[in-house]
Amino acid sequence: MSDGHAWQGNWKVHLYERICERGFDSLTAFADARPAVPLHMLAEELGEEDVAGVQVLDGLLAEAEQRKQVTRFVRDVLVRVLSQNLPEGWPAVLDDSSRFTVAQSFAMWTSFTPETHKERVRQARAALRTTPPPPGWRPLGPDDELPRTLLPDEEV
């Protein structure tokens, strides 16, 4: 976890230097090679002491905006948040503990979502509450069927 070193100097240049050192031409390509890996783990892989997960998130959003793929970015964040918070997949029973974890995941996902897509995320959350995925379900990437059904590729 970053202890503040991540914000020293030009962190964007530093982040992209790390990406290039690993043979990737974009942060998106780096992240796509690691589907469903939580953002903080991507940051740790790029530099345990000097890269923060929020920097990875910011870079991925910027690239998504440039490529007009923000909806895919939003699905990608959902997959990464669920992977982090529900590593065993969707809970079989929504007891108090698992309901809290799902709510926490949804809150994190929403907070990481750009304003242009927040209403669509609210609708997707409602759909997941009304018709939950099967127990143990884990999306493996942003292009999996359920995330694509919830948030189809139509840019806002």
Automatic annotation (TrEMBL):
<keyword id="KW-0378">Hydrolase</keyword>
<dbReference type="GO" id="GO:0016787">
    <property type="term" value="F:hydrolase activity"/>
</dbReference>
<protein>
    <submittedName>
        <fullName>NUDIX hydrolase</fullName>
    </submittedName>
</protein>
<feature type="region of interest" description="Disordered">
    <location>
        <begin position="120"/>
        <end position="156"/>
    </location>
</feature>
